[in-house]
Predict the 3D structure of the following.
Amino acid sequence: MGDGPDQIRAAGAVLWRPGRNGPEVALVHRPKYDDWSFPKGKAKDGEHMLRTAVREVWEESGVWPVLGRRLPAREYVKESRSKRVDYWAATGNGGDFRPNEEIDRVEWLPVPEAERRLSYEHDADLLREFAAGPNRTTPYIVLRHTSAGDKREWDGDDVLRPLDERGRAEAAALAETLAGYGQTRVFSSATARCMETVLPYAARMSADIRTDWAFSVGTPMAASKEAGGRFAQIIGEGAAALVCTHGELVPELIERACETLGAPVPEDPRLPKGGFWVLHVARDALVSAERHRLQAM
């Protein structure tokens, strides 16, 4: 099944919480179909799949999710159309379920019982994928700044070159998209365009922005720092982090992170403007890596 223009796109999560004998996962019951599945739903036009996952899980389960590692997508045919559902593991961050016409029950079940309750084999396969990996992971996000006009048309110091109108709109969209990964420390290049890119997210999450010359370009001070080594140090501290930097430094950060975590380096680690990598780490190992780009504004 291909990713064509007629493909139905949806997203959801294996929402879990600690239980007495291991994790418990949330299943939702749809009275229209009388089935049990994971919370999920279709994307709105132009909506980033990360935002779809968060919105749909909240709408169906009443729980606001914090996304963890990416799980394998599921593809199948529904009403003669190809459907792809992207999934993440997720923990809950508060909420309260209220029955409605679409979902009338939510139950938290231990994994073995949930596997027996699920109505579809592709969901059971997904649950087994979840159970085979670490439940809780720590995200490390590498973000390339958004659109900042043409460098050749900027007469001032390049460190001060700001985002353009498109870049500001992209930064606002990123704030909501990245919020799906929960609270993180925020590090930024000292340049205006990087700081402006993370400002909406930092405001959204009530986080401080820590400028770091290691993630900057264009000055002698920045050139004397080692971006990859600094990122490896941040990962070693064991707390979630977002780093906003420049396109020319992204490969160095990703390569050093993979080497530090004993994982293969992606064939092409580059990012478009406004794109970001999310490295999910557990017990000093890279569990999964996902790359995202902003959808057209």
Summary: The chain has a mean pLDDT of 94. The chain has two domains: 8-132, 138-292.
